[in-house]
């Protein structure tokens, strides 16, 4: 049978001593069974080296030795890894720890075909694959499931520094041995394996300083930051014991200047004319009115400390034991200062309206006695402390020449402690008097300009920077803590066969136990829409406030007061700021010794835990056959998945002890006896078949085909049990839940077909794919819902308090999240081309080019009414056109590349406004990286991220209804690298 031979480039790499690097960087498969295949590949490559060395001199001279380094070498390693994979995948390889200068692994992944990113704070964070958002992407580290600080299943890749990641891969087609969970695909990251290192000892250190060129426009923002990293890999005891350690620190300024348009939650007839489109059912002449908008300076610091460690022991040839750990601490402290404009809703007086369709996008709004029209000066303080921990122990034992056993135990946990502190200030008629009065003479004039900054005007503009007019009127703290942890145990077997076209069989099982929890709490004092007599506003002094002017693109907006938060709070609360609490507040059935006057029961009802236990098993056969005279490899198999999911709930049973009501005491002593605690959930079983076939058409080309049923579980926070049911005086039972512990996974049938042509110095790939997704999550109202039949503790009757008669209860409406949104297809084309121009003369031989393009379309649509009338929008995460291109050059120690990443319009969650899914404008992000190797051990580097200062821009369904316009600035890096 013809063998699939390495290309001349692979032979040249092996002859140049790079074969070991190829092998160590091609180990991307999730399951440890692939380790055996990689070792076999290593033997084959070693045989190639030996054959080359044994050839006569004349033969040696006939083989061109191409020694490729730097970014070019990484691309070549990735090409070879892709070539020998048994699934449809994209590979990412780094020469050594710290060799990629990207801020996080997310930036590097976006240069792969069909992959794009959503930027948060100017940094690539969430990964989208083939038009699907991060919630459909499954992520592993060293083959193990990772939990996230995001509160969902979407991994925040900016918490994974490139300095500690040695390789990465994106699996677009699954196989039975891979952990289930990615309808879009699976991202696999790997840290160092010290025994696979080709040197006995390596040490890398990297120090970089950074500068943000927009920070100077933001009062109080830091302009400078730094990145420091080092790593060590060593082999001891005759290469039987390996040790790897690494540390990476990022200390960077967080800077942005932004306009945020708020959604359209009011309606009113502002022009006395009928609309061209239908308005609200009760008044088709109404126009939709935005809640308002915000203008803000953002600044602060982001600190990320990443740690990596591994110990690998191979006491005998057929056994390897490895323990590894990855730890990341990502802390950010940021401020947001500026204005929050409240237009005042339907009760405001509106003149000279500018109407687009049936939405008001401009006009003059004046406060009335019924409206809440006002301009708030905001000085917010946000703190987010994130922790990611991943630990694992793996044992790989070649029991016999045919049988391999692999065992793995792992723990992945994450914690996010987010505190949103808000300080509101409002304008007084005169802040110097004993009893200041809220200034109700408010007039706001504005005009949105689509995806450009708006025109604005305020009659109070001069007062915004006047310490004798502005008073602090409210302070609120809203902490949100979520924790996520998964323990997993895995046992895999691989047995070589001598049975026709089957080369081996793999089978195994995995059990995981996941717990997710969230806790909400709150503290509020004062009033953001008026001056409270019981909680009076704070008079500012000179040492508390500074006048801030807008600069650059925002320079025409009026100045305002930046308030020192600590000084203001110390003056307002001389005995210390009260701490936020998780509290029931003041309501019937509540004993409140603290004297709370506001009902904060949401803080407890939105807190709780989710439990998820998964037992999976698989059987997979590997293929090594011939189709005619052509080699055919691949695999086919099936994975069975048993899921047991549940969540804690608090059901409002009106204090009825017979229905399970209990006295619940929170941490400050508030007692509630209305609720019955319970746990609800579901169990289900799935079968996921898959097949992957690779046909070697010629020595340097192959065709891949893959088909599979895949699944992605709902976001873990959407399984939370915040359901509630109440009985009205007429006996009608109604209930609601924004989440649902009974949600099922997303399922899809998918097909992939690709052609890969491997040149001596590059690759050309063309691929098509098709996914048919069953359903998505939607929120619906179910009339006549069977509350008792679905486990709610509801009474059969209630007693009329006046007549004493029994009133039989009846089922009403239950509003909840369900898997009934209509599914549909996602299909697309991907093209990729990489060329290292090794055949060019002299210095031109270091030139290379890498480009890819994907076109994706889907019939799946969702609806949004955030912009007023209901309109359709595309599947979240889908950009029809995604492209990236990199021009790179390597010669005589100089390495440089310029990369551009483009994606057109897409739908995603609103920046800075949680839970709002909006449209984002297309964007092109350009980065530049360069380095020069002064000696074998010392190098310098320079890079610029976001070279063109590309902002992010969003809108509500229609580009005229501005969402967020956010400008981040360019980041410059200058540093030194030491390699020993």
Automatic annotation (TrEMBL):
<dbReference type="InterPro" id="IPR036942">
    <property type="entry name" value="Beta-barrel_TonB_sf"/>
</dbReference>
<feature type="domain" description="TonB-dependent receptor-like beta-barrel">
    <location>
        <begin position="476"/>
        <end position="947"/>
    </location>
</feature>
<dbReference type="Pfam" id="PF00593">
    <property type="entry name" value="TonB_dep_Rec_b-barrel"/>
</dbReference>
<dbReference type="GO" id="GO:0009279">
    <property type="term" value="C:cell outer membrane"/>
</dbReference>
<comment type="similarity">
    <text>Belongs to the TonB-dependent receptor family.</text>
</comment>
<dbReference type="InterPro" id="IPR012910">
    <property type="entry name" value="Plug_dom"/>
</dbReference>
<keyword id="KW-0798">TonB box</keyword>
<keyword id="KW-0675">Receptor</keyword>
<keyword id="KW-0998">Cell outer membrane</keyword>
<dbReference type="InterPro" id="IPR010104">
    <property type="entry name" value="TonB_rcpt_bac"/>
</dbReference>
<dbReference type="InterPro" id="IPR037066">
    <property type="entry name" value="Plug_dom_sf"/>
</dbReference>
<keyword id="KW-0472">Membrane</keyword>
<dbReference type="Pfam" id="PF07715">
    <property type="entry name" value="Plug"/>
</dbReference>
<feature type="signal peptide">
    <location>
        <begin position="1"/>
        <end position="29"/>
    </location>
</feature>
<dbReference type="InterPro" id="IPR000531">
    <property type="entry name" value="Beta-barrel_TonB"/>
</dbReference>
<feature type="domain" description="TonB-dependent receptor plug">
    <location>
        <begin position="90"/>
        <end position="185"/>
    </location>
</feature>
<keyword id="KW-0732">Signal</keyword>
<protein>
    <submittedName>
        <fullName>TonB-dependent receptor</fullName>
    </submittedName>
</protein>
